[in-house]
Amino acid sequence: MSSPAAGRGPSPEGSAEPLSLSPSSYLVLGLIARHGPMTPYALKIRSGESVGPFWSFPHAQLYSEPDRLARGGLLSEEREPGGRRRRTFHLRPAGRRVLDEWLGDPGTEPAQLRDPALLKLSFADLGDEEGVRRLAERQGEAHRARLADYRRRAEELTDTPEDTARRRVLTIAVCIEEAHLAFWRSLLD
Amino acid sequence: MSSPAAGRGPSPEGSAEPLSLSPSSYLVLGLIARHGPMTPYALKIRSGESVGPFWSFPHAQLYSEPDRLARGGLLSEEREPGGRRRRTFHLRPAGRRVLDEWLGDPGTEPAQLRDPALLKLSFADLGDEEGVRRLAERQGEAHRARLADYRRRAEELTDTPEDTARRRVLTIAVCIEEAHLAFWRSLLD
DNA sequence: GGGTACATGTAATCAGTTACATGATTTA
DNA sequence: TAAATCATGTAACTGATTACATGTACCC
Fold first, then answer.
1. pLDDT band at B82 (very low <50, low <70, confident <90, very high)
2. Looking at residues A68-73, what average pLDDT do you find?
């Protein structure tokens, strides 16, 4: 790595106010805190590993979000002078503080169950039974495939703290997939 | 897998322009198909009844979305000349066709499980066990409350076709809440 | 007759997504 | 060396959310 251009930019420490923090923000902060300074591309790869299986972030967002966080003083950016002009983002103390605060706060936004299949099912009275049957079949297949995927992923985990966290999340993902699967199957009686 | 009408091309039917259809679109089309011509406010009320318990649409969207659909030729708009200048939206044949197509197509976009609590849990290795415990407690409470709410709603349903559809959806919502609840409890061993 | 909840709408903003574009490495 | 794939970045768009703003009816 080239010599980090220490303290690049004006960085007026106290002028980072209006910055709303979304799940994407915490994903970025968390990944950098865990793995050290990263490029957006590395974020993309890592995000696939952790929450990836059931919550996908488009790659463009992993370029723009670090930008935002840097503007807000939570990250610092270091840029390769030549070649690909890669940008590497570092966690700043303010970023670590925000992350710790989030981790320590037991409150979260409620999970909304936004499943297009359920929306469709809720309008089943406008269609015919045959439509519901076909929907249930397809959903059964889809959830079965996901379930298999999650189980396979869970098997590959070690018992580092990191993988332990991942295992927990995969555990509930599996439980929820099982619930979906059982439901759609029950519609096919 | 079923790609919605996002496909480009010289649309042989040649009616309206490219209009991307989101879940909000189908919610609006479906509610108007079921209950007849409606104002945005009525849409807001009805949306709370059907998918409302687990998928909330902000009211502003129920004003802008019918607009979009009307511009696309799927709805027609009728406006009160005086007073509140209420807008009432009617389903046009093209709208009914699009709705039927959607209902008949067993494919849907996959449901993503975007639960901020799980994101936080997936970063548990950056915090302490105490944080996880408190998170699990809170999530337990939250899911217990939701579960009770869903069950109460389910009890009030009749057996019209409409309510039958709603009952199915509430059934799976209950199952999923149970899965969440069991999971967070299991973390509190 | 004044407060407050219901009803209706627009405007501004933002997050998330798609699309476009290109540089660098590997591989056939 | 051509093609394919990985890696990197920006631009443009738009659906969704927040905030603003106002009208109407009801009830103490």
1. low
2. 92
- Can you say how many angstroms the Cα of residue B157 is from the centroid of all Cα atoms in its chain? 19
Share of chain A above pLDDT 90, in %: 75
Q: Judge if B145 and B178 occupy the same domain.
A: yes
Q: Which residues of A touch B179 (CB under 8 A)?
A: 172, 175-176, 178-179
Q: Which domain, by its residues, includes A41?
A: 23-104
What is the Cα–Cα distance from A123 to B31, expressed in whole angstroms? Answer: 8
Q: Is residue B67 part of a domain?
A: yes
Report the number of distinct structural domains present in chain A: 2
Residue A14 located in a structural domain:
no
- Candidates B106, B162, B175; nearest CB to A134: B106
- Nearest CA distance, A136 vs chain B (angstrom): 8
Q: Which of B70, B104, B138 is the last residue of a domain?
A: B104
Give me A81's structure tokens: 């002078």
B48 and B99, same domain (yes or no): yes
Give residues 121 to 150 of A whose Cβ lies within 8 Å of B: 121-127, 131, 134-135, 137-139, 142, 146
Picking from A104, A135, A155, the residue at the C-terminal end of a domain is A104
Picking from A23, A119, A183, the nearest residue to B51 by CB comes out as A119
What Å value separates CA B45 and C1' C5?
15
What's the rounded Cα separation, in Å, for the pair B47 and B49? Answer: 5
**What is the bridge-based pairing of β-strands A87-91 and A75-79?**
antiparallel
CATH number of the CATH domain containing A70: 1.10.10.10
Residue A2 pLDDT greater than 90, yes or no: no
Q: What is the residue-averaged pLDDT of chain B?
A: 88
Residue A84 is predicted with a pLDDT of 67
pLDDT tops 50 at residue B6: no
- B120 neighbors A110 (Cβ within 8 angstroms): no
